[in-house]
Amino acid sequence: MNDKLMASSGGKCELCGRQAEVAVYRLPPDDRRGNDVVVCQSLIAQIEGSEPLKPDDWRFLPEAMWSEIPAVQVLAWRMLNRLKGEAWAAEALDVLYLDDQTLEWAKAAGEQSEPVEAIVHKDANGNVLNNGDSVVLTKTLDVKGSSLSAKLGTVVRNIRLVEDNPQQIEGRVDGQLIVILTRYLRKQH
């Protein structure tokens, strides 16, 4: 069965169309016929939740969702739902049409709980921030509870991400540890 599927897909990922290292992914629930899809190995880890979901890796979904293969439609619908916080994914979901039976299958994900979305911290320009990065303040900020004023252009080195809030980082300005909103930062390259 897998050889037939690989042959019909031409050895390409049925989602993104790339000729990469591919594998057969079985969509839950397992009791359906025709629930196998040929997918890039790099995407399977994100589908299964063993790696954090990276929205930019899924920009092809608005095209893949129009596949004639129901299993591809279902997988595209499920991934778009997980990414619906991204404007492009929400727009794609708004125009995606699935017949009643396929939509029912898509909603019967077989997943008992929603996968945990990875919290991603981004600067004012949309660049992803990581622990240890250096950033530049894009606005002069008055620090609450202090006479300190963090000036525009101040470089904050070795930042720490606030784990439960993607809009905040911690950094030292003039020797004082402060919380800074990411919308007032630009990542230093």
TrEMBL record:
Residue span, PhnA protein N-terminal proteobacterial domain: 4-48
Superkingdom, natural source: Bacteria
Coiled coil (UniProt feature): none
InterPro entries, per database record: PhnaA_N_proteobac, YjdM_C
Protein name: PhnA domain-containing protein
Organism expressing this protein natively: Parapedobacter deserti
